[in-house]
Amino acid sequence: MLDVIQGLLQNHQGELVGQLEEKAGFGTDEAKSFLPPALEQIGQALGAGGIDLGALLSGDGLGALLSKIDVGAIANQSEVDAPKAKSGLEALVPMVLSLLKQEGGGLEGLLGKLGGGGAAGALGGLAGKLFNR
């Protein structure tokens, strides 16, 4: 999962910085400093499982994901205050999920990146049938 997150940072840094500037009021330097620890924590939270991915993709599961992220650690690493870090995560998570879904070949690919086989693979197959992929 870490490789996927690093790929997002390399391939989409400009878009992600723009999202933080527009939606969370970050300056460019703040956003660039915020992205690495934020993306790492998002990746860890997604990779740990226990999150309803369907709800998350529809926008309803953001709170569940944020509860698994150490906002204080991100704030300390990026030198922004905790409320701004939370607002940055709220702006960033939907875009990160969208980019992961695009790069992963849809919902089934995203599920594969988040855990691969087992239940995630079966769920991915079911999601593929539901979304005709």
What does this structure look like?
The structure is a single chain. This protein has 133 residues and is mainly α. The protein has one domain (2-130). 80% of the residues lie in helices and 0% in strands. It is built from eight helices and no strands. The protein has helices at 2-24, 28-48, 53-58, 62-66, 71-78, 82-103, 107-115, 118-130. Helix 1 crosses helix 6 (82-103) and helix 6 packs across helix 7.
Structural features:
8 helices, 0% strand, disordered C terminus, 133 residues, mainly alpha
Secondary structure: number of strands:
0
The number of distinct helices, counting runs of at least 4 residues, comes to 8
Q: What's the N-to-C terminus distance?
A: 22 Å
Judged by helices, strands and strand pairing, the structural class is: mainly alpha
The arrangement of helices and strands along the chain is HHHHHHHH
Main beta sheet: none
Uncertain residue segments: 116-133
Average pLDDT metric: 79
Count structural domains: 1
Gyration radius from CA atoms, angstroms? 15 Å
The proportion of residues in beta strands is: under 5%
Shape: globular
Helix content: over 70%
